[in-house]
Amino acid sequence: MPSREVLDALKGALGCDQVLTDREDLLCYAYDATADMPRHLPEVVVTPRSTEEVVQVVQVANRFKVPIYTRGSGTNLSGGTVPTRGGIVLSTLLMDKILEIDHQNLTATVQPGVIIQDLNDAVACYGLIYPPDPGTVTTATMGGSVAECSGGLRGLKYGVTKHYVMGLEVVLADGQVLRAGGKTVKNVTAYDLVKLFTGSEGTLGIFTEITVKLVPAPEARRSMLAVFKDLSSAARTINGIIAAKVIPATLEIMDNMTIRTVENYARVGLPMDAAAVLLIEVDGIAEVVAREAEAVARVCRENGGELTEARSDADRDRLWAARRAALPALAQLRPTTVLEDATVPRSRVPDMLLALQEIAAKYNLRIGTFGHAGDGNLHPTILADERDREEMQRVHQAVDEIFRVALELGGTLSGEHGIGEAKKKYLEWELGPAGMDVLRRIKQALDPDRLLNPGKVVD
Amino acid sequence: MGIYGGLDGVREEIIKCMKCGNCLAVCPIYKENKREAASARGKVQMADAILKGEIGCTAGIADRLALCLTCRACVAACPSGVEADQVVLSARAEVVRQRGLPRAKGAIFAGLKRRKLFHAALRVGARLQRLGLARIDRDKARPRFPIGLDTRRVIAPLAAVSLRQQLPSLVGGNGAGLRVGFFTGCLINYLYTDIGQAVVQVLDHYGARVIIPPDQHCCGTPVMVHGDAATARDMARSQVNVFSAANVDVIVVACPTCGCAFKHNYPALLEGDRVYRERAQGLAAITYDITELLVDKLGMGSNPPGSGKSHTVPGTGKLRVTYHDPCHLVRSQRLKVQPREMLRAVPGVSLVEMKAPDRCCGGAGSFSLTHYDISMRIGARKAADIGATGAAVVATSCPGCRMHITDVLSRHGMAQRVVHPVQLLAEACRAGSGVGGERGTAHG
Ligand SMILES: Cc1cc2nc3c(=O)[nH]c(=O)nc-3n(C[C@H](O)[C@H](O)[C@H](O)COP(=O)(O)OP(=O)(O)OC[C@H]3O[C@@H](n4cnc5c(N)ncnc54)[C@H](O)[C@@H]3O)c2cc1C
Ligand code: SF4
Ligand code: SF4
Fold first, then answer.
1. What is the mean pLDDT of residues B245-267?
2. pLDDT, mean of residues A257-282
3. B379 with B408: CB under 8 angstroms?
4. CA B430 to chain centre
5. Are residues A306 and A233 in the same domain?
6. Are residues A119 and A87 in the same domain?
7. How far from A80 is each of A33, A89, A403, A444, B40, CA to CA, in Å?
8. Domain span at residue A273?
9. What is this model's ipTM?
10. Which ligand 1 atom sits nearest the alpha carbon of residue A456?
């Protein structure tokens, strides 16, 4: 237990209502969405409502040298919010105000606890969108997604969270409040601090205000589904579309294992023997969209893809149903679902898919792979049962190998889920000793007492 | 062993949870208080911790498990197909097994912060006595089973004469039609007798014979959701006896919670009972919601009530009706189109959908009593959605939702009439075929 003094200080600062200490509550902040990760209970959970209250919590943490684990909705997949060293969990969920929508400068300023979809709903009436759309848009917070630099289905054309964060208010480990960036499109004042904090996974500071860029909603879109008999035709199609100078908003792939599972689960009409399906969506100005859709359809056909085009919203829903069913269908096969996000350059996607099939065979595991083929970000999904220790051992070996192959193919450990606790041990493979040293020095400079999310990313 | 025999019965559900948090987006309670412990994920993880011995069945666990409407919104959103409501119910039963039932009244009245309600609840007690229904009292005059109203925050005036006293035990059909056993449920029997009258009139109109077994009693859900599996099991057995003896072709209910009792809970409660298991399953297979029976089995859609006087509002010509989906109908029984089809068949009705018609109204039986504030906050969202439709009538196929929505609307100064769809249909039948007013008392 933290000393009475810590609890008293927190209660004094925030009031008793915003400080949870019952074991029953603590238990509910001991996990996040990461599979195969034991619970670690914090000693106290605080729910501040303002920047000032966050500062006060940080001051208490500083005074008593207690760690702070900042938490949004706890949907990250890398153990980023699990309080592995106890201490304080700081939940941002009560800081959920959209502070401003500036439709002249095309920006929105929000508190960190705002849910991504709520921001989208609020800007829709201005004909604007906030493009980053992780699978968890309806649950994840803006703070969590900025801290993870989340991607999503539209990454290929629209980029990821870091391309939208323009300004941040950050409470630093010593309790100072930093404001960096702002509403200007151009800003080269000194180091790019906004980029430094984006993707920092709660280890360098606590965001209390976030200003993001908005873009006009596309006026038209066209969706297509193409079924392929062999993987290499699907791969040629992916590269052919880009070569035809079309950048689709969405270019998703599902492998045979996923196709079969989806078909068994949702009966959406996919051929069970298909090697891969691509879900492609182009969006933008109507005339351009029509031309792009034509080009995509041509490339698909040239490569032997069997094409279905959506003619209506209902059609589109049907095509998307297959992709949406991917995770649920796989997840229902076995109790434990290990979702990875190793990422390779687009041209190496077919190599990665083949390697994944080999890894599945080698370790005798069921791995379904789907994901964002357009940006090389695949989600090999390993299905297992955490009660079977021997099987879990094979899962761990397979995961090691997946990362090794991704790096060999010129890729990266994480396309969008972050390092957190779960992928820390692989970090040096990618960054080498010099990279690790830089990480450590940044951490040392900003959080010398290791108060912010200790144990995550870098020690 | 089933889910009520111990947490082991839901072990697979618990292990299936991948903690993805999808349920956070839809849980009405979590939306209001943003506490992880209120979400489906939180409750499933608590159950997991109990199973693994990381925490006992503490009073704090009981309090947190109480925060569930069993609305199944989480189940519908869950990629892994986790039946979180079943986990909650099973865990509640486990808590009761280990800790005993909290002093019933204490639990019920604890949430009663408002005097007005407190008085309303007491008034019910008084009236029940006047009706000759002894309350569960220390030792004397204990009825065989508690009745559902004990655990409800009752705001509608209690019927002077209960439905089963108003109606004979056999109505209509000239000896030929489908033999329909009507399970009335407590809310319809004691409060909303108008729904019960409408059910009987409409079934009569469509040529069915309605049998109302006099020995029926509360479906047992209120006891079951509070974790008293033992009593719930006794009640299930008794109900199975009553309806097996009634010799009916089908059983009809107009309360979705009672429907779930017959369709799902009795078979689950009696799973380990060699004698009763199959009989419960047999009854489950012939149980229909009234909207389901009329639309799917009696072909009401192709044979709408006479085109007599249609409903009109002065100036508009059409009666704007919006429909609220009761959780226990739309998700537990997957009945979404039938009630709407029924409403569309009523001459003069124009159905306008509200935003998120299937979002829980916040009533959830006794939940509104024990957690009044949060229940009202959930209801406020529903009131806003109803208001935005401009409808004059809210139809909902559940007496519990009707009660809660009526309360919520009145608190927001809104005057919409709240009815069960079968009532509008009955009105149309009366207007068209001259079925005539309510039936008189024919039976004690
Ligand atoms: C089913 C599923 C699908 C997913 N799909 C995608 C996807 O398509 N793309 C993708 O990128 N991710 C995806 N994710 C991962 C996850 O949803 C995202 O990373 C999400 O943005 C996390 O948001 P959160 O609010 O849940 O953050 P949390 O999990 O609560 O926190 C994540 C990290 O951010 C830190 N943090 C939170 N708030 C703050 C703050 N205010 N200041 C500083 N640090 C903070 C935390 O300390 C932690 O390190 C998926 C997850 C699941 C379970
Ligand atoms: S949606 Fe289902 S799997 Fe996901 S956290 Fe909720 S209960 Fe668990
Ligand atoms: S059943 Fe409803 S109230 Fe209960 S956890 Fe699920 S969504 Fe929440």
1. 93
2. 90
3. yes
4. 26
5. yes
6. no
7. 9, 12, 19, 19, 21
8. 220-325
9. 0.93
10. 49
- Average the pLDDT over each of A25-29, A113-117, B385-389, B406-410 and give the range with the smallest value: B406-410
Number of domains in chain A: 4
Domain boundary among A216, A247, A272: A216
Question: Kindly report the CA angle at A128 between A126 and A130, in degrees rounded to 5?
Answer: 140
Q: What is the largest CA-CA distance in chain A?
A: 71
This prediction's pTM:
0.85
Domain of A135, CATH number, reads 3.30.465.10
Q: Are A251 and A278 in contact (CB under 8 A)?
A: yes
Confidence of residue A299 (pLDDT cuts 50, 70, 90): very high
Evaluate whether A151 touches A160 at the Cβ level (below 8 Å). yes
Q: Nearest C-alpha of chain B: how many angstroms from A255?
A: 19
Place of tokens 């409470």: A171
Q: Letter for the amino acid at A190?
A: A
The residue written with tokens 């024919």 in the block is B442
Q: Which two tokens stand for residue A218?
A: 């596309």
pLDDT of residue A307: 92
| pLDDT classification of B173: cutoffs 50, 70, 90 | low
Tell whether A237 and A206 lie within a shared domain.
no
Q: Rounded to the nearest 5 degrees, what angle is found at the Cα of A289, between the Cα atoms of A287 and A290?
A: 65
- Note whether residue A123 is domain-resident: yes
Interchain contact A237–B (C-beta under 8 A): no
For ligand 2, atom 8: residue with the closest CA: B17
A313 reaches B (C-beta below 8 A): no
**Where residue A403 sits, what CATH number does that domain have?**
3.30.70.2740
How many residues are present in chain A? 459
Give yes or no: residues A15 and A121 share one domain.
no
A16-29 tens-digit pLDDT: 999 999 999 999 99
Are A27 and B45 within 8 A, CB to CB?
yes
Residue B129: its H or E element:
helix B115-130
